[in-house]
Write a sequence for this structure.
């Protein structure tokens, strides 16, 4: 008996799934976006459901792609399938997006684009296509997408909002890049439906108990029911004797296909093997390769092969398990022969990478020519931004390389590509191979550098900095520039993630011992020298050098911003230059946005958000925090909510801040994000000082003050001094003041001196205190740090009241109260109000006046402000990683909330003096 697996068999008993999918299509027709991951084991009917979606999408533009297991090493292969029909619209994209797609698809040479810029380009393509008709994108076998494509489509799926686009995946399991997306799990058929399907496949009468056993063992898997029924005969099922055992379902189903394949004539098996090894599904290519092996249509085609594969516009296997069964059933010699034939018929000019992969699969042993081809393929993949593909090519190249020195060189390259692709296990394996085969010290040093960077990426805390230091020292005799960049990375790692100061001191001493660079010092030289001095000789010695660095960091070349700016930008804060700090962070965020560097952008946004919070622009800080959260959600890379922590603490939102602080301390501690824990405790100290709970502020501040890091550990000192002074812990307060003076005195900036004077006043006698408070108010009044100025007025007023100078105290406290209210610092405002009441003045509780647009969400405010500045929807979308259509959707909501009807009215609705 012959049973052909039909797609419609996969729809038996799927009424609820079909209804849900129909609702999805209906929603997209009305202008909504939908994303759905249809997942379940092999043979469960996913592909049939996806085909139903396609057939239901009448009047819609359908884009289809299929993940192919043998193409997982080819960067952007699946994405290219999906986007080919839209490439005529590339000309309409903004230049950076257009060039990014052209680069990854090999249509132009250029700098490898960030994958998230590619994602934004695909989002724009789909958004533009949906303007003329709703769009359905179907990606089957998504578990076999190449990693670059998976990252991009995962990004796109998370950014779809107001486009008439449906993105539907079919997958055996949800991969990392699809986690968190809406899902539809497809499970086995119920007893009745499975029985119906089995009865249709097996026409002879079935004993009820035998039927139930088959259904139970197959777990209602439609393909298993159909395939296993092929092995049944009337005598085998009589009484249930001789029934095949289901075993592991995918393996059992695949074995069923293997049995059928083994029964085919040799020519037919060879044709199937060619089709299985050729991932594109190009029938011309398949037949050309088959002919080289002596296979012709008359000798190979028959009814049995038609049940397994179809040769039409594309070569399509009846099920992915057929492809894997064909390939696994073949012997090694046949597989190599087939790959060699496919390599010979693949045009090296049109598709050199696929040809190289076939040659590698055809190699029976080491082959330098093929290894060199793979190395060139890796270079092309890297040029397109396909780091995972480059790593795969290089790893295979290493395996085919004979010469140990050349093998070690390629292994280092493979380790570096694997590291940058995020595959730390593969990177370690390649480093092991490189260190085993390396014949010269420079190569061993480079291997050690990659191993050190792996440790840093893995968040190994105290282990990474000394490893990076050793790598820098080993590289220094061979490549001074690479060594200096490695020293800076080591210093940054020690400052940010090391729990103690030993590594930081050792690295700083090594930096100080470096020979001076030739010629005029570059920005990296100034930063490196200044950081080294900061730790070994103190702030007085470091400040002149770091001030020179500060002067050039705001104009740092974009490539340096992206490579080491995350470490270097801290020079501004180290010399207490708040204006330069804001300017540098604004530009760094702009560079990261423009490059699509979304893994780096949240780091710069965290710094910019804190700097903005310090100015009292809480609405702006909330907008930055919202952008950081959105980017983190889009990339799937969690980062501590630095801005939101400080913002909610300054606002005095006790419930929200307390919960956020506790949550951050817990998960950031587990995730190895020491800076997240540090910022959370700093925020706790600010919160409790605002609430006048000084006993709780002290231990929180002490946690942040103890670490080796040189920024937050200093910024938290005024909180510790204030809290300790208020509860009479003079020893703690004076120890913290000594550290603050050491950090601030060498920096003659209004920020440094204003904070220092305010803190000194808390521990000074009557005469000195008044002078210090007055100087603090004067100094901070020349900055944009409004919250710090308001707190200086508060402390001055509190001191005056305790000196029984009620009239003078009221003046300072009233100023502080009004400032706190206008900024939105409710806890500090209440503290000032209580002090005013103690002076005998009556004062009502007040909160900041409701300004126009305050009911906008942070993202809506961000969009509104950009549009107010004259940016078009595509320009706003490019900056915020949204599609133009999503921007337009948000604008509709913004106009409603602001009671306006046009973009021109935003200038009046949101005044620029906000």
């Amino acid at each position: 008996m012959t049973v052909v697996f039909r797609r419609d068999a996969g729809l038996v008993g799927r009424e609820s799934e079909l209804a849900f999918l129909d609702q999805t299509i209906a929603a997209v027709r009305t202008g909504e976006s939908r994303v759905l991951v249809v997942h379940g084991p092999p043979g469960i009917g996913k592909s049939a459901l996806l085909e139903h979606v396609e057939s239901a999408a009448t009047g819609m533009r359908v884009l289809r792609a299929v993940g192919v297991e043998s193409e997982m090493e080819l960067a952007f292969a699946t994405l290219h399938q999906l986007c080919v029909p839209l490439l005529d619209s590339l000309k309409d994209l903004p230049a950076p997006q257009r060039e990014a797609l052209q680069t990854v698809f090999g249509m132009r040479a250029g700098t490898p684009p960030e994958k998230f810029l590619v994602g934004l380009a695909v989002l724009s393509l789909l958004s533009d296509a949906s303007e003329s008709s709703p769009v359905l994108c179907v990606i089957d076998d998504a578990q076999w997408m190449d990693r670059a494509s998976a990252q991009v489509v995962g990004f796109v799926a998370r950014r779809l909002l107001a486009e008439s686009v449906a993105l539907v995946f079919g997958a055996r399991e949800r991969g990392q890049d699809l986690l968190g997306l809406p899902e539809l799990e497809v499970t086995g058929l119920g007893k009745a439906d499975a029985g119906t399907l089995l009865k249709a496949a097996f026409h002879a009468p079935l004993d009820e108990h035998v039927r139930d056993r088959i259904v139970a063992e197959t777990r209602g898997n439609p393909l298993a029911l159909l395939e296993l029924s092929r092995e049944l005969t009337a005598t085998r099922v009589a009484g249930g004797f001789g029934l095949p055992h289901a075993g592991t379902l995918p393996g059992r189903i695949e074995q069923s296909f293997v049995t059928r394949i083994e029964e085919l004539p040799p020519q037919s098996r060879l044709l199937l093997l060619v089709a299985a090894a050729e991932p594109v599904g190009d029938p011309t290519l398949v037949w050309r390769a088959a002919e080289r092996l002596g296979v012709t249509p008359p000798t190979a085609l028959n009814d049995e092969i038609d049940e397994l594969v179809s040769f039409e516009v594309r070569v399509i296997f009846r099920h992915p398990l057929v492809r894997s069964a064909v390939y696994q059933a073949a012997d090694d010699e046949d597989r190599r022969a087939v790959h060699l034939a496919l390599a010979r018929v693949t045009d090296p000019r049109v598709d050199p990478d696929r040809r190289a992969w076939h040659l590698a699969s055809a190699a029976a042993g080491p082959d330098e020519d093929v290894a060199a081809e793979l190395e060139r393929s890796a270079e092309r993949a890297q040029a397109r931004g396909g780091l995972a593909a480059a790593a795969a090519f290089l790893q295979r190249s290493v395996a085919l390389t004979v010469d140990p020195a050349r093998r070690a060189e390629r292994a280092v390259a493979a380790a570096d590509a694997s590291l940058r692709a995020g595959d730390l296990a593969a990177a370690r394996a390649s480093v092991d191979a490189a260190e085993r085969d390396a014949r010269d010290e420079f190569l061993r040093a480079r291997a050690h550098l990659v191993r050190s960077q792996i440790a840093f990426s893995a968040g190994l805390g105290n282990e990474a900095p000394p490893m990076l230091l050793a790598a820098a020292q080993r590289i220094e005799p061979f490549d001074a520039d690479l060594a200096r960049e490695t020293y800076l990375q080591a210093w940054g790692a020690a400052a940010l993630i090391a729990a103690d100061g030993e590594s930081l001191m050792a690295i700083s001493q090594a930096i100080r011992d470096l020979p001076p660079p030739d010629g005029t010092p570059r920005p990296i030289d100034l930063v490196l020298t200044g950081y080294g001095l900061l730790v070994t000789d103190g702030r007085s010695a470091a400040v002149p050098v770091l001030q020179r660095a500060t002067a050039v960091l705001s104009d740092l070349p974009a490539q340096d911003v992206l490579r080491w700016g995350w470490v270097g930008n801290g020079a501004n804060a180290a010399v207490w230059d708040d204006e330069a700090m804001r300017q540098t962070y604004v530009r760094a965020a702009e560079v990261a946005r423009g490059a699509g560097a979304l893994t780096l952008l949240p780091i710069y946004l965290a710094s910019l958000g804190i700097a903005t919070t310090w100015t009292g622009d809480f609405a702006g800080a909330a907008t930055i925090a919202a952008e950081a959260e959105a980017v983190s959600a889009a990339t799937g890379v969690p980062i501590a909510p630095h801005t939101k922590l400080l913002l909610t603490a300054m606002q005095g939102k006790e419930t929200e801040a307390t919960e956020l602080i506790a949550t951050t301390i817990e998960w950031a501690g587990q995730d190895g994000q020491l800076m997240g824990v540090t910022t959370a405790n700093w925020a706790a100290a600010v919160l409790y000082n605002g609430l006048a709970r000084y006993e709780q502020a002290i231990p929180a501040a002490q946690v942040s003050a103890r670490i080796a890091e040189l920024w937050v550990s200093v910024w938290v000192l005024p909180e510790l001094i204030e809290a300790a002074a208020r509860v009479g812990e003079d020893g703690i307060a004076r120890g913290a003041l000594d550290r603050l003076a050491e950090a601030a005195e060498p920096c003659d900036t209004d920020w440094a001196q204003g904070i220092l004077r305010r803190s000194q006043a808390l521990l000074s006698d009557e005469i000195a205190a008044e002078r210090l408070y007055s100087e603090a108010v004067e100094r901070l009044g020349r900055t944009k740090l409004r919250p710090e100025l308001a707190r200086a007025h508060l402390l001055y007023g509190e001191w005056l009241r305790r000196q029984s100078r009620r009239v003078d105290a009221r003046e300072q406290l009233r100023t502080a109260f009004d400032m706190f209210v206008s900024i939105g610092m409710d806890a500090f405002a209440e503290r000032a109000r209580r002090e005013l009441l103690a002076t005998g003045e009556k004062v009502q509780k007040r909160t900041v006046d409701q300004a126009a647009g305050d009911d906008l969400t942070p993202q809506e405010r961000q969009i509104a402000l950009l549009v107010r500045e004259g940016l078009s929807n595509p320009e706003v979308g490019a900056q915020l990683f949204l599609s133009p259509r999503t921007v337009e959707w948000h604008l509709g909501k913004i106009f409603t909330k602001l009671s306006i009807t046009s973009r021109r009215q935003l200038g009046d609705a949101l005044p620029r003096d906000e």
Remarks:
- Confidence is low (pLDDT under 50) at residues 1-7, 234-247.
- The beta strands are 34-39, 61-66, 135-140, 165-171, 183-185, 309-311, 315-317.
- DSSP finds 49 helices and seven strands in the chain.
- The longest helix spans residues 480-497.
